């Protein structure tokens, strides 16, 4: 039965992906809509389950592992200041906007805090797929987005820890936030410190089946370690890919890794569609309030990303802002935690669902033309030089 469901997802993802590619639109949108089509919302041929959820998680891990393989640490460090600013501003603006709007429409303080928290985290997998598809992962604005996404995840986790502490105990859990900050900083710092060692590591002499086997082990291992300390597994996968980027040409890691990603990542995006509860979005109040939450979510990341990356130029700063806009499973997890704790009700949860669906579908649509717009300016600059 699981094999049949995987076949349905892959078939629909390939067909709709091809349709969107033919229409010169991001393939990822077709893959998400494939999940909506095959899932409970329409045909009901595919349902959530442990096997499919696990394959979807692996798809996200291998997508970010591949993105990391095309990103060297020195390139990220070269835009480190901008990435940090983009992450901080891109967390602050949506959080404050969501909190204030929640209060304005009658939410109690705790549901308003959860609404702001749900708007914080970026789903970099969606943006990374579009950047990869357009072949612009080496551009400085792409590195800013990827670097900011790592910092963004840590900041989002800290905000969630604080708000979650308020929900459970009624008090700020400063100690928990500090602990998460320190552990996350150590994890990212150690991964970056290993880069010089990786350059001189003779993979062919290690007691491993092959350099590729070692690379996949590192990717999955760091993803698992990230999950253990509370970060998104894709952060660990991205850092693992960045480590191995130092030896990617020497050991031919990209091509076979891409083959694995090409199988798994469409399942990840299709499962995003399968999980969407479209019936919850049909209520008029959800459509009205949700549209405003969606605008706050888009504007918060756009303004934060734009201001943080303005040193790169106007058009490239717009690309960064749009690239940081997609939300994904993290926003839903935050809302689900609030629902489980009794801090938010079903209607408040539906607003977050509406925002996640909207940013998931709209951000890739806007990202492609703004990248083309920025690339035209870059080409003109190169010609003048």
UniProtKB/TrEMBL annotation:
Annotated coiled-coil positions are none
One GO BP annotation is: sodium ion transport
Q: How does it sit in the membrane?
A: Multi-pass membrane protein
User: GO: which molecular function terms?
Assistant: antiporter activity
Keyword Transport belongs to the record: yes
Query: Sorted alphabetically, which keywords does the UniProt record give?
Result: Antiport, Ion transport, Membrane, Sodium, Sodium transport, Transmembrane, Transmembrane helix, Transport
Query: Which Gene3D superfamilies would you find in this protein's record?
Result: 1.20.1530.20
Q: What is the protein's major site of localization?
A: membrane
Q: Where can this protein be found?
A: Membrane
What residue intervals traverse the membrane?
Answer: 27-46, 51-71, 83-101, 113-132, 144-167, 174-194, 214-245, 257-274, 286-310, 317-343, 349-374
Which protein is depicted? Sodium/hydrogen exchanger
């Amino acid at each position: 039965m699981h094999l049949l469901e995987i076949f349905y997802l892959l078939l629909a993802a390939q067909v709709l992906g091809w349709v969107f590619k033919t229409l010169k639109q991001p393939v990822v949108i077709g893959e998400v809509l494939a999940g909506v089509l095959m899932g409970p919302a329409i045909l009901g041929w595919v349902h959530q389950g442990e096997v499919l959820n696990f394959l979807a998680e692996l798809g996200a891990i291998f997508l970010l592992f591949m993105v990391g393989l095309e990103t060297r640490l020195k390139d990220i460090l070269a835009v480190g200041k901008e990435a940090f600013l983009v992450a901080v501003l891109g967390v602050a603006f949506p959080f404050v906007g969501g909190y204030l709007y929640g209060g304005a429409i009658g939410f109690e303080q705790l549901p308003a805090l959860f609404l702001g928290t749900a708007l914080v985290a970026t789903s970099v997998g969606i943006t990374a797929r579009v950047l990869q598809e357009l072949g612009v992962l080496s551009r400085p604005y792409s590195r800013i987005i990827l670097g900011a996404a790592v910092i963004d995840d840590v900041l989002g986790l800290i905000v969630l820890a604080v708000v979650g502490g308020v929900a459970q105990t009624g008090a700020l859990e400063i100690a928990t936030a500090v602990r998460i900050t320190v552990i996350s900083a150590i994890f990212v710092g150690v991964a970056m410190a290993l880069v010089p060692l990786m350059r001189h590591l003779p993979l062919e002499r290690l007691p491993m089946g092959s350099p590729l086997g070692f690379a996949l082990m590192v990717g999955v291992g760091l993803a698992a370690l990230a999950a253990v300390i509370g970060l998104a597994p894709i952060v660990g996968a991205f850092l693992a890919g960045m480590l191995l980027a130092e030896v990617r040409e020497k050991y031919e890691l990209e091509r076979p890794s891409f083959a694995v990603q090409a199988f798994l990542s469409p399942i990840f995006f299709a499962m995003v569609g399968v999980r969407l509860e479209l019936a919850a979005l049909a209520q008029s109040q959800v459509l009205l309030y949700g549209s405003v939450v969606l605008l706050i979510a888009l504007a918060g990341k756009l303004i934060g990303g734009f201001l943080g990356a303005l040193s790169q130029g106007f058009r490239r700063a717009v690309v960064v802002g749009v690239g940081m806009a997609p939300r994904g499973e993290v926003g839903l997890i935050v809302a689900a935690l609030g629902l489980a704790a009794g801090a938010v009700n079903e209607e408040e949860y539906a607003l977050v669902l509406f925002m996640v669906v909207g940013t998931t579908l709209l951000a890739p649509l806007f990202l492609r033309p703004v990248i083309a717009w920025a690339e035209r300016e870059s080409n003109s600059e190169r010609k003048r030089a």
